[in-house]
Amino acid sequence: MYAYDEIDRTLINERVSEFRDQVKRRLSGELTEDEFKMLRLMNGVYLQLHAYMFRVAIPYGTLSADQMRKMAHVARRYDRGYGHFTTRQNIQFNWIKLADLPDALEDLAKVGIHAMQTSGNCTRNITTDQWAGVAPGEVEDPRIWCELLRQYSTMHPEFSFLPRKFKFAITASAHDRAAIKVHDIGLRLHKNDGGETGFEVLVGGGLGRTPFIGKTIKPFVPGRDLLSYVEAILRVYNQYGRRDNIYKARIKILVHELGIEKFAAEVEDEWLAMRDNALTLDDEVVEDIRSRFTYPHYKQLTDLPDELKAASADPHFEAWRLNSVAPHRRPGYSIVTLSLKPIGGPPGDATADQMDAIADLADKYSFGEIRVGHEQNLALPHVAQRDLPALWRALDKIGVATPNVNLVTDIIACPGLDYCSLANTRSIPIAQELTRRFANHDTANLIGRLHVNISGCINACGHHHVGHIGILGVEKNGEEFYQITIGGRADEHAVVGTLIGPAVPYADVADVVEDIVEAYLALRARPDELFIDAVKRLGVEPFKERVYATR
Amino acid sequence: MPLVKDGKIVGDSFIHVADDVEIPAEGAVLMSAARFLADPEALVGRNNPTAVIWPNNRDVDDLVPWLSKLAAVALVFPTFRDGRAYSQARLLRERYKYRGELRATGQVLRDQFVFMLRAGFDTFEVKKDADAEAFAATARRYTVFYQPTGDGRITALHRRMQQRHQAESANP
Lengths: 551, 172
Ligand code: HEM
Ligand code: SF4
Fold this sequence. Notes:
With about 550 residues, chain A is an alpha+beta fold. Chain A has helices spanning about 5-25, 35-40, 65-80, 100-110, 145-155, 225-240, 250-260, 260-270, 285-290, 305-310, 315-325, 350-365, 390-395, 430-435, 440-445, 510-525, 530-540, 540-550; strands spanning about 45, 50-55, 60-65, 80-85, 90-95, 125-130, 170, 185-190, 195-205, 215-220, 325, 335-340, 350, 370, 380-385, 410-415, 450-455, 470-475, 480-485, 500, 505.
């Protein structure tokens, strides 16, 4: 974990006091809603269908148990007793009062949590692999660089009023769990032939109404040059990004309109003019940040302890273990994913009581650390394997041990019409219906890895383009219809899915998904050919046929 | 619109000259970029201060040859959401070492003062009286800065290094 020092804490407190003043000026009418809007957005406050929505940052998805308890407190004290974990490693509260917000922020600030830049046209929360620092085979812990970028981008004097929002994601693993190819800037930490650590920089990825997969702008930028290179990109974007049309204002459109070569040349010119400026990171500074990340005092343990072998006789435990427990870089330890996708529940929701319980379990079993992933699940990153049986029983009791991680019921969904003022259609009820359809664990397990993503409108908050099965709600003559895409993915082989045919009405969506899954089961070459691979091999035709033959 | 310069509300010493009005021989004048670029040599050759309003969609490179002779450059925030002038300001100050007055105009509100000061602005045409009056307090609101800019404030990263070095020299 990274420990905020007096310097970081001072800034957060100064920000809270500024926001308190801004809310006061809004409530007294000194600020118009239009003026206030940008300011509140930069503190994560949206005006939604029913109330203000409050989005709190979880920088690079790492939370301490105390921070989680504070989230529970905010949920209980200022909201309706629950929060919603999102695809960008944030948490949202849906029912908060404007007048309460400064107090909520002040409470969060006590544990080093804030809502800075969780919205607005600035650099948003920096996200990464939820297994950062513990995944086997990682180049190094990417969170050191996330933290450097977090500091660099927080209240940036030049880039707080960009043409549009700006999102970074970093991975340091061969298997990309951070979806870097669908971010404005994606960073892949790797070592070059000389053994030096640096970044492949991708730019211009993003979903929304015009989805793009990010393109490599530079294969290797040394760590020391990361900030200056990023500043060059942001400066080119700030100056030349379109501001005449918000739908064309993202950097992906600029990159697309100029072409990556031309854009890269602009960035290179800008970078060469400033590369050796004060942004260059010397090793001492990087080491200083690194030294403020603390790691657990792991015990000397061995893999597969007797406690684990004994527990494996219980088929329920074993089903959960096979699904939710991943290898750790240290022997005798595991990474445990907590599913926030119970059958019939809204994806990503957690109650205050669950949050408190998870915090206690993190203290007991995971050195007080919790992670949030973009799939809207949580993880405990350092669990001794011998504790897995006891942890499982405790997780099961609070409803976060559904063994469905990466299966068809592990659905990513945006809030849709239930909360969102931009929505055309519902998302959550579709997710709930689908989880009921596929509730049988054996069936879901037989199907294997299959990501379903649902968005309630073209903005693509549910990442539907990169779902193996993507569901996008569109409105037609006042009725809810859904377009279905297949074959999308958000990992290192990211692609945008292909539309299989005309949109279907609300009532048919679950049937259509079932048809697609049945077609896959009938067509797959072997039981271990994943859905996504079968779609790649077969194309959309056979799926289209199966779905539309009878409709 | 109140003008804040060096932290205080002041009167404007520049006469704003519209494009169709003849430029007076005397006095400090502020004019559009188009007007200025029509005959820059003559305009910087006046014996009185000349200043330009530079639009935010035009490369500041075009202004660079004249910078050392300009008394002020006014950059424009057509709305407070349009942040192009922040980049222009930093380029003028940091890359092109412009030392004259750098003025923020347009939708200039108190919530941007810190950003603007850090980007290199020293003069502000503030939209609201109350904001101009709150300038000094608002400008002092933050004491921690994460990024190095031309305003010379020490960044958090470097402050930490200083603290570390001090601690080390105290306990060698
Ligand atoms: C409830 C209030 C919300 C509103 C008003 C909202 C609004 C938007 C809008 C307008 C966009 C499109 C931006 C663009 O492409 O230029 C967007 C994109 C996005 N939103 Fe939301 N959103 C909301 C909630 C959420 C939630 C709950 C999540 C996560 C579960 C989320 C995650 C995302 C993501 C990941 C994108 C990225 C699309 C991309 O990569 O370009 N949003 N949102
Ligand atoms: S995809 Fe649309 S409906 Fe869903 S949260 Fe985003 S803006 Fe709202």
